[in-house]
Amino acid sequence: MPKMTFVNKDGSELTVDAPLGLSVLEIAHRNKVDLEGACEGSLACSTCHVLVDLAYYKKLPSATEEEEDMLDLAFGLTHTSRLGCQIIITPELEGLKVKLPAATRNMQVK
Length: 110
Known about the structure:
- By secondary structure, this protein is an alpha+beta fold.
- It has helices at residues 24-30, 54-57, 65-71; strands spanning 3-7, 13-17, 49-52, 81-83, 96-99.
- It has a five-stranded mixed β-sheet.
- Strand 1 (3-7) and strand 2 (13-17) form a beta hairpin.
- The protein is globular and about 30 Å long.
- The N and C termini lie far apart (40 Å).
């Protein structure tokens, strides 16, 4: 089974099993990683924003227009930002490393 690594806000790392076909958001929730996902992966928020290691960013399919629109709302956007709900684990992503941003912006919280 592929593995992936989450880099937490404090810099600590957690390497976990990354079952094929699951999203980074689903894997985070299975492993109690602090990745919010307020819309539960329906591509309606940016709270599952992650910073993808450059080597793996190049292996991802391009973001859809809908994902780009949600990323525009993300806190701390970088050129390797993606939404965790849109990154689906494939064999090519073995060893994927993503960093959690310092904060998230949840537009649903008042």
